[in-house]
Amino acid sequence: MVDSNTVQLSRALLNDMQIWARSLGFQQLGVSDIDLSAAEDQLQQWLARGFHGEMEFMQRHGSLRTHPEELVPGTIRVITARMDYWPETAADAWQVMGESELGFISRYALGRDYHKLIRKRLLRLSQRIEEAVGAMGYRVFTDSAPVMEKALAQKSGLGWVGKHTNVLNRQNGSYFFLGEIYTDLPLPLTEPVSDHCGSCTACIDICPTQAIVAPYQLDARRCISYLTIELRGSIPVEFRPMMGNRIYGCDDCQLVCPWNKFAQMTTESAYLPREGLDAPQLVELFSWTEAEFLQRLEGSPIRRIGYECWLRNIAIALGNAETSQKIVASLKDQLEHSSELVREHVQWALEQHINPS
Question: Would the keyword 4Fe-4S turn up in this protein's UniProt record (predicted)?
């Protein structure tokens, strides 16, 4: 039988943790157990259909992803937290996508890389909890290990996984990052929330490449975020015209979601646009040398795709842009690039202007 004083202490601790989390810049904190059996079944079906494409890391770690106690022995609870990232000062997303000479970058990537920031805040939160309860076992994560972030966020009540497979919150939409603390602390659980997508299919209908093949089912191989960020080789020709001027990620399914009318602006200056990335000129970006790419995007999540894929993505956007002397000249300047991957996409882009179908 659980001692009532212990239960009251745990609930008081949970309330304190939520206050501490807010003081560290998080907007919400929840606690889940470690039973991910339902999510494990869904993951196995997704992998079996090949929807992960070349993201072999999704199956590399076996059961570690769906069994937190295997990844971090002793884990019995997962503390989940979310942090808003929508930058109020950024240029209007739809307007940028409507101007073909500009490049569109997913709004989460306009500022500094969120990984280090959130990890540091989670460590500080963990240390604050330790100060209150004594030594505990823990490890923090933010999109940095085989962790079922969305499933854990859903179990802990931060939101529900919408038809576009992003986590949605009724009061805050979906523009937020997630982070986790695996712990051996026997905390009380926070309640999950119900699904509120209803009959809406806005995200499915808007997807440029029809990557949301059914409600709650995403074929990553068709997703522009996958194609521009995760894929390292040639982007399939069939998807190139559909990509428009999206050069890093794609926000369409979130931009059109009715729940994002409630999205809150970020309070973190680190997430505000740098280097004019909220509405950059494609020709200017395409002229960057590798040294400029590395210097200008220092501390940015964009650097992870590397210079070649950066040029590959911009070449496609230039191919989709309205024909102009400046666009064609920019592409011709890269025809002899040392990378075969870049040359291939530049050649395709030029063909769109010289021999349009």
Answer: yes
| Binding site feature residues | 65, 143, 167, 178, 197, 200, 203, 207, 223, 225, 250-251, 253, 257
Region 15-25: mean pLDDT is 98
Q: Is 237 buried (19+), middle (13-18) or exposed (0-12) by CB count in 10 A? A: exposed
Catalytic residue among 92, 113, 143, 219, which? 143
Q: How confident is the model at residue 1 (pLDDT cuts 50, 70, 90)?
A: very low
Residue 15 token pair? 């309330």
Residues 6+ apart with CB under 8 A from 148: 36, 39, 43, 65, 66
- 6 pLDDT higher than 80: no
Residue with tokens 């907007």: 27
User: Cα separation of 344 and 244, whole Å?
Assistant: 18
Structure tokens belonging to residue 210:
């029809």
What is the Cα–Cα distance from 282 to 303, expressed in whole angstroms? 17
What confidence tier does 144 reach under pLDDT thresholds 50, 70, 90?
Answer: confident
Task: Indicate if 252 belongs to the active site.
Answer: no
Torsion of CA 286, 290, 292, 297, to 10 degrees: 90
CA angle, 316 as apex, 315 and 321 as ends, to 5°?
95
Rounded mean pLDDT, 3-16 = 74
Binding-site entries for [4Fe-4S] cluster: 197, 200, 203, 207, 223, 250, 253, 257
Binding-site residue positions for cob(II)alamin? 65, 143, 167, 178, 225, 250-251
